[in-house]
Specification:
single chain, alpha/beta, Rossmann fold, 9 helices, 5 strands
Length: 240
């Protein structure tokens, strides 16, 4: 299988994108174009194939986290060689990180190709997107809802204690906040549309107000280490 483009941007649910990427890369490197059982295919699944650099962030990317990428592409490949660089959660690239990639995406060294994965197009700089072939591989209903979403759809102060226990029990990484807000916005947008169709003015007003709160929250995402406070404040803003 030949790679037709220098850089791809795939949008969709994280697990679906991961499986799609593995399958794509297996068809490139496997002698049988993706048998899924040979040593090569297994090495790809385990992310240890020599022809792949796979970056997965714990939080927002930093320039230091991209250093291995630039180290790899500094080596010239033989004419028939290929190397694929996969960047998961490309929506977590900071502006500085994204800008540092522009030249490499537009004119990668011979044999190098990029695949950027993201659950949402928001957060992807237009300059990055314009250098990639974009493909949305999943519908809005195909991804799994964030585990905290129900707390932000009930509009009930009675679940506040449960929410606090939940976020104290298991840390919510900052990069998951955007995913949660997307789910909240989708839910309340649907409620708003349904209310308008039914002529339910109070519900439409309530859903519209919650949408506005979520939109404002999107503009001021939490700093590292402040996700708990961010979620508590968001819950209070929505329910009170």
């Amino acid at each position: 299988m030949t790679i037709q483009h220098q850089a791809y941007l795939w949008i969709g649910a994280e697990e679906e994108l991961r499986l799609k990427t593995i399958s794509f890369v297996q068809r490139i490197f496997c002698a049988q174009e993706g048998c899924r059982s040979c040593h090569t295919c297994k090495a790809i699944i385990e992310k240890r194939h020599y022809g792949i650099t796979w970056l997965v962030p714990e939080n927002y990317y930093t320039l230091k986290q991209l250093e291995p990428l630039f180290h790899v592409i500094s080596f010239a490949l033989d004419p028939q060689e290929k190397h694929i660089i996969i960047i998961e959660r490309a929506d977590l690239l900071t502006t500085a990180c994204a800008n540092s990639l522009l030249k490499s995406l537009e004119e990668p060294p011979q044999g190098y190709h990029f695949i950027l994965l993201a659950p949402r197009t928001e957060g992807i700089l237009p300059t990055i997107a314009s250098r990639c072939v974009k493909d949305e591989t999943t519908s809005r209903t195909s991804s799994t809802a964030h585990r905290l979403l129900p707390y932000f759809t009930q509009l009930s102060v009675s679940v506040a204690g449960e929410l606090i226990k939940e976020i104290e029990k298991e840390r919510v990484p900052e990069h998951e906040i955007a995913y949660l807000l997307d789910g909240c916005m989708m839910y309340w947008h649907d409620r708003f549309v349904e209310a308008l169709k039914k002529g339910d003015s109070p519900m439409a007003q309530k859903a519209g107000a919650v949408r506005d709160i979520i939109e404002r929250a999107r503009e001021k995402m939490p700093m590292p280490g402040s996700s708990k406070l961010f979620l508590k404040n968001l819950f209070l803003s929505i329910t009170l």
